[in-house]
Amino acid sequence: VLHRHGLPEKSMDEIRPQASHGASGLLKLGTGITPDHPDYMQWRKEFLDEYSRCYADQTILFDGVNEMLEALVQRGIQWGIITNKPMR
C-alpha cells in the first residue's frame, strides 16, 4: 500500500513493535495519519483489503514454537490460538 502511494516501505524492525497495535498503529507508522485524519478510513480499508490477500504469505513460527506444540500434544495438553485479528 505504501509503495502504491509513493511512500517508503518500512523494515520488519520498524513494523514489529507496531504490529500488535493493528491497522491504526501500522498506518500511523507508514503514513503518519491517525484515526482522526479525514482520509484514515480510506487508508484503513485499502490496508485491510491488501492484508486479507497476503497476510500468510511470509508467515513463519517463532523459534521453538513447533517443538513446544509437539510437546503439548505428547503430554495431552490442549492448546489454542488467540489473536487480535477481528473477523471481517
Explain this structure to me?
The chain has one domain. The protein is 49% helix and 0% strand. The protein has four helices and no strands. Helix 1 (12-19) runs antiparallel to helix 2 (22-31). The longest helix is centred in the middle third of the chain and has 15 residues, at 40-54. The model has no long low-confidence stretch (mean pLDDT 91).
Could you give the order of the helices and strands?
Answer: HHHH
Shape: elongated
Please outline the major beta sheet: none
Instruction: Tell me the fraction of residues in β-strands, as a range.
Output: under 5%
Count of β-strands:
0
The total number of structural domains is 1
**Uncertain ranges:** none
Helix content: 40-55%
Mean pLDDT over the residues: 91
Give the structural class.
Answer: mainly alpha
Question: What's the number of helices?
Answer: 4
| Rg, alpha carbons | 17 Å
Measure the end-to-end span. 19 Å
Please outline the helices and strands.
Elements: H1 12-19, H2 22-31, H3 40-54, H4 65-74
Helix pairs in contact: 1-2
Question: Can you give me a brief rundown of this structure?
Answer:
The chain has 88 residues and is mostly helical. The protein is built from 4 helices and no strands. The protein has one domain.
Quickly list its features.
49% helix; 88 residues; mainly alpha
